[in-house]
Amino acid sequence: MRRTSRPSRTFLALVLTVLFALVVAACGGTSGGGDSGDGGDDGGEDAAADLPECPVDALDSATGPVQVTVWHAYVAKTEQALQDLAAQYNESQDKVQVNIESQGASYRELQRKYQQAIPSGDLPAIAILEDIQNQSMADSGTVIPLTSCDEADDSFNTDDFLPIALDYYGIDDVVWPASMNLSTPILYYNKKHFEQAGLDPENPPTTLAEMREAAQAIADADIPGVEAPWVQVATSSFVESWMTGEGVELVNNGDGRDAPATEATLEDNEQLTDLFNYLNDMADDGLMLPIPDTDGQIDQYTAMATQRSSMAVETTTAATSIESFLKGQLDTSQLSGDGRINVEGLDLEGLDIGATQLPGVSEPGRPQVGGGVYYLTNTTPPEVQAAAWDFLKFINTTESQVFNDLQGSYLPLLESAAADPALQETWQNTLSGQWLALGYDQLLNGVEPDFPGITLGPYTEFRAAMTGALEDMYFNDGDPSSVLIDAQSEVDEAIAQYEEENF
Question: How far is CA 52 from CA 101, 167, 263, in A?
């Protein structure tokens, strides 16, 4: 793992402005000064000295309830779980008031708002961002890493954290998110369609080759209403999982884990090209319905709910929402701004949805780590930072992690939470619980610790380029090799620009 220690020039100017305007001296500065981005100029002092401080004791002298704002982009069950956890915490003590604020229905929208707020310093105490923001958040200088709080707080340790989470979110032995909501992609499928196609619903596909066989069988069965056996969002994230599972780099230097990535490895990547050709053939042959990747996208759920499709690769976070929907207990307007799934007239009882581990290129259950992660910002006064950390410690308890899994479909960050009797009972005896259990097993046993996924500053741009390549291929008749060449150029340019702007 590597830690970014070079200061962002943009951020250095920003910090001076923010600290002067807000008179927030030493809020999140390094042990040697007031700005959190100047630790790279010391010529190799102890790494801990480069990190922003975590003022864990500042809450002791605070008067009145300290207000902590949390930005998020959750919807449906995951949003409600977060609101409930905040309410539980607020009721448990009187020194801190946590306020949950939605910033839209997608991580992309939240990220845009966070970036736009950096120049003014008007950032929340906590921001829950997508996992792909880890490197850029570390480089931004706006974050107090978990490592700093762990070292400063004698009442806290990470011994119970899943090692794979610490591996994935660690950069040069520094873990930046203060907590992690973990998820992993799995395959959801219509068991009745499998039966109608002569397939064994208890033995779903385990590889992409078997996905094609199952899709072809469903297509050949001519099941009424089925437009395409497999519906799939055209997003880079699943491609990343398929390649990570095979140990294939998508950016150089070990996917950015051995050293900062300097270029993409998309062009002339035989395994990646083979995957693109496979996906393109599935779409061309009418066996897969690609869905554009847009903010708030739920068309894949619509296709499954209306039984126009029989299979979809989605994350485990959909588990409890899908089960609630099948039971007629979910207000579908929660799933998107326009409520595009109309439950009236749908044969919910006729839906029999199963799930299995992610079908892989060569074997199942080998994904990339993913999820939403909590960042503790350093632009607020010390007492707010301390209050936010206190809430995050609450989030990191066994009880909270169990609640978050049961209500919000995220996988537990703590080993003690996974072993909790209530969680184990749910995993064994409920439909969504069984899906989450297989996701948890996949996370523990399928992810290679030394190769858990990409770390990259311009990860957002990388994902946009890869998603764009998929969409050009699906919707503009782009040749798989050609769209990957274009994506290579876009990512390389983004890496060069990121380096120029930040270091």
Answer: 25, 20, 29
* DSSP-derived secondary structure letter, 141: T
Across the chain, mean pLDDT equals 86
pLDDT digits (tens, 9 = 90+) for 286-344: 999 999 988 766 788 888 888 999 999 999 988 876 776 666 655 555 444 344 445 45
Residue 169 makes CB contacts below 8 A (sequence gap 6+) with: 131, 134, 175, 176, 177, 180, 373
Contact between 309 and 289 under an 8 Å Cβ cutoff? The reply is: yes
What is the Cα Rg of the chain in Å? 23
Q: Is 154 helix (H, G, I), strand (E, B) or coil?
A: coil
> How far is it, in rounded angstroms, from Cα 452 to Cα 435?
21
Q: How far apart are the first and last CA of the chain?
A: 19
Cα–Cα nearest to 469, from 274, 286, 299, 266: 266
- In whole angstroms, what is the distance from residue 237 CA to residue 324 CA? 25
389 neighbors 376 (Cβ within 8 angstroms):
yes
Token pair belonging to 473: 């291929």
Cα→Cα distances 265→131, 210, 276, 479, Å: 21, 27, 14, 18
- Give the per-residue pLDDT at 59: 94
- Residue 223 has a CB neighbour count (10 Å cut-off) of 16
- In the numeric block, the tokens 């437009």 are attached to 227
The pTM of this model reads: 0.86
For residue 397, the one-letter residue type is: T
Token pair for 472:
């050009």
What residue ranges define each of the domains in the chain, with the CATH number in brackets?
A: 56-180+371-419 (3.40.190.10), 185-368+452-502 (3.40.190.10)
Three-state DSSP at 355 gives strand
Number of residues that this document lists for the chain:
503
Alpha carbon distance 293, 290 (integer Å): 9
182, 413 in Cβ contact below 8 A? yes
